[in-house]
Structures are given as C-alpha cells and as structure tokens.
C-alpha cells in the first residue's frame, strides 16, 4: 500500500477520534456551546428587521451568513492554531516527525477534526436559526448544495491560515492573544461585519484577496433572495468566481499546510520541547 495513502487513512481516523474525545472535554464543549448561543442570540435580535423595502426576508438571515463564516474562521484557523501551538509545545509534533509519513497523518487529522467540529456547530446553528425564523427562512435543494460546497471548500482553504498563525506563535497563550487579533482583522476586512461594498476602495481590494470574503459571498448567495444582491460589489453574486477562488485557496491550503508543518517540525528538538514545557509550567 502507498505509504502516503496509508498515512492519510490513519490521519482520518485520528481526526475522528480526536473529535470524539473533544466532545467529552468540558472546556471544548463549553467553547462550542458559547459560540452557538452568542450567534443564535444575535439572530433572534434581528429576526424582525427588514433592511430592504418590499423584501420579507429578515436581516437575521444576512447575519446568519456572517455567523457561519465566522464559525469557519474560529474552527479552521483560530482553534486549529491553538491546537497546533499546544501540541508543538508538549512534544506531539516532534513525535509525529519521527514517524514514517507522520506529518501527513498529523495534518490530515487536524483538517478532519476541524471539518467535524464545524459541521456539528453549523448544523446546530442553522437548525436553531430555522426554528426562530420560520417561515421566513427556507432553502431549496440547490441552495443546500451551494452552501455545503462553499463551506467545505472554505474550511479547507482557511486551514492554511491556521497553520500560519500556529507557526508564527510558539505558545497557546500567544495564539490566544495575537491570534485573536489576526482572526478579528480577517473577519472585518472580509466584509462580515458590514458589507464590503460600503467600505473604502482599498479595503475592498484587500478584502477580495481573502478567501473569507468569497466564502461569505457564497454563503449569502445560498441563504438570501436575489434582491439582496444590491448590497454586494458589482450587484452580483459572482457564484462561478466564488467556487474558482475557493478551489484555488483550498488547493493552496492543502499544499501549504504540510509544507508549513514540515518547516515547524524541522525546528523542533528535544531541547526546544523541554524549554516549551518549562514555559508552560511557569504559566500554571
């Protein structure tokens, strides 16, 4: 059997098991529940707002699209960076480097775990939002397929950002501080807080360079009626371009993630891991 393919299968099983273990971790469960509750509260507050005259779809559906995109950021980028920096510090990364094709299995496991965590979070969020907004929120089969495709590509594309953040900061504490700033800046510049079309031209250029903008645009195209297209750049959904850009970023993410991980692993030694453990003990 091909060693790389075998490592990929091991990584898939590893990601599945790590996700099941996280469901029994009070800290992970609390983090997930808190994120869902905050999102649903915001949806509830906007349930009666109608931003466009003559359009019955409430503002809450637009907000839901942004919430799903933000959940991708914090699942595939921020949370992944936190796990990576933690396991870099405790020696897991060094141990995986010593195994044949260990980094391939490790990378695959992280991506699978991120996909499962987001799938569970998004499913609960959408279900609760549908209950709150019914009958003002309904999706066709085509809308569901578009949504699933955009979210799947988006979460793979954004894993590269998680590996970049995790490689830049050596400790979970640093990721929790500066990593949160980076994630917040990415959310803002991508037009998830306010429509990108209302921002300065230079911000629009910067935002469209981010995969998060295109993922948000694709999510909005699946959740919102065509009347909402007037708030987008160029007054169009550009759905074909959405998938092209996300596929490009997803491929780049799959290529960059192992490369970044290999670069991190090459710098890890027994001495550096011991120094990391000592720093962790000092924080306790």
TrEMBL record:
<keyword id="KW-0812">Transmembrane</keyword>
<keyword id="KW-1133">Transmembrane helix</keyword>
<dbReference type="Pfam" id="PF01061">
    <property type="entry name" value="ABC2_membrane"/>
</dbReference>
<feature type="transmembrane region" description="Helical">
    <location>
        <begin position="59"/>
        <end position="81"/>
    </location>
</feature>
<dbReference type="GO" id="GO:0140359">
    <property type="term" value="F:ABC-type transporter activity"/>
</dbReference>
<feature type="transmembrane region" description="Helical">
    <location>
        <begin position="175"/>
        <end position="193"/>
    </location>
</feature>
<feature type="transmembrane region" description="Helical">
    <location>
        <begin position="239"/>
        <end position="261"/>
    </location>
</feature>
<dbReference type="InterPro" id="IPR051784">
    <property type="entry name" value="Nod_factor_ABC_transporter"/>
</dbReference>
<dbReference type="InterPro" id="IPR013525">
    <property type="entry name" value="ABC2_TM"/>
</dbReference>
<keyword id="KW-0472">Membrane</keyword>
<feature type="transmembrane region" description="Helical">
    <location>
        <begin position="29"/>
        <end position="47"/>
    </location>
</feature>
<feature type="transmembrane region" description="Helical">
    <location>
        <begin position="118"/>
        <end position="137"/>
    </location>
</feature>
<protein>
    <submittedName>
        <fullName>ABC transporter permease</fullName>
    </submittedName>
</protein>
<feature type="domain" description="ABC-2 type transporter transmembrane">
    <location>
        <begin position="16"/>
        <end position="223"/>
    </location>
</feature>
<dbReference type="GO" id="GO:0016020">
    <property type="term" value="C:membrane"/>
</dbReference>
<feature type="transmembrane region" description="Helical">
    <location>
        <begin position="144"/>
        <end position="169"/>
    </location>
</feature>
